[in-house]
Amino acid sequence: MFAPFKRSGDRLAAAESVKRWTRSRFGLAENAMLLVSEVQSAVPGFPPLHTVVAFWTAERKHYHFRIFKPLLDVLEEDLPPSWYKEALAVVFVEGMQCECC
Prior knowledge:
The chain is an alpha+beta fold.
């Protein structure tokens, strides 16, 4: 009965770690908007649970990436390398609709 509360604390700590690692890896300011979520997927080929990280810079540029592990299993080395940052940018093309944003 009490397990969900402990698990929530573990999940919060895991999300905070992923945020801290992401800020450090990509040189983000402390006040940069950053979102970490665990997503359940029914898409064939995807793991049942994976972690999605999205962040916005001061220039209002949007980036995101997926880690194909549940949030509690994510390690710092699972994040993309810092030199890959621009490849993570979400590019909006007029008329294109992005289901994730």
